[in-house]
């Protein structure tokens, strides 16, 4: 019986890293720079995020004062990437606040849901839609 338990544990330990790598690879299309095209927090023509692979995780960095670490997740049969992040100390009303971040792909668009605590402790949802940054003609 101990041999069977050891064999199962060994099989899991040797296949788990490959599984995590495969999961990250399935989100490869999300990597790169994205620009915001819509948001319920207001228009921001210059808002961009950069998504980069970091092993089993992804790092998400914005050009307007926040960053997060996310990982592939599953809910109700759908795959998305989710995690936690925080705003820089100097980022206005949200300065220094932590948040939860969910990202999902829908066609050529990246959908974002950021849940951040408001001043009164209630949770506020910030929704945004991003598209790929054009390779030529944009900086």
Task: Kindly describe this structure.
It is a single chain. With 139 residues, the protein is α+β, with helices and mostly antiparallel strands. The chain has a single domain (2-132), classed as Lipocalin (Beta Barrel), CATH 2.40.128. It has 1 helix and 8 strands. The protein has one helix at residues 2-26; strands spanning 32-39, 48-54, 57-62, 66-75, 78-87, 98-106, 109-117, 123-132. An 8-stranded antiparallel beta barrel has the order 1-2-3-4-5-6-7-8. Strand 6 (98-106) and strand 7 form a beta hairpin. The protein is globular. The N and C termini lie far apart (62 Å).
Summary of the model, kept short:
This protein is about 20% helix and about 50% strand. By secondary structure, it is an alpha+beta fold. The chain has an eight-stranded antiparallel β-barrel with strand order 1-2-3-4-5-6-7-8.
Any key phrases for this structure?
about 140 residues, alpha+beta, Lipocalin, 8-stranded antiparallel barrel, 1 helix, globular
Beta-strand proportion: over 45%
Which of globular, elongated, flat, extended, rod-shaped describes the shape?
globular
Q: What's the helical proportion of residues?
A: 10-25%
Total of helices: 1
The end-to-end span amounts to 62 Å
Q: What is the fold named in CATH at topology level?
A: Lipocalin
* Radius of gyration from CA coordinates: 18 Å
Sheet with most strands: strand arrangement: 1-2-3-4-5-6-7-8
- Residue-averaged pLDDT: 78
| Class per helix and strand makeup | alpha+beta
CATH class label: Mainly Beta
CATH architecture field = Beta Barrel
Q: What pattern of helices and strands is seen along the backbone?
A: HEEEEEEEE
Number of domains: 1
Largest sheet: 8 strands, antiparallel, barrel
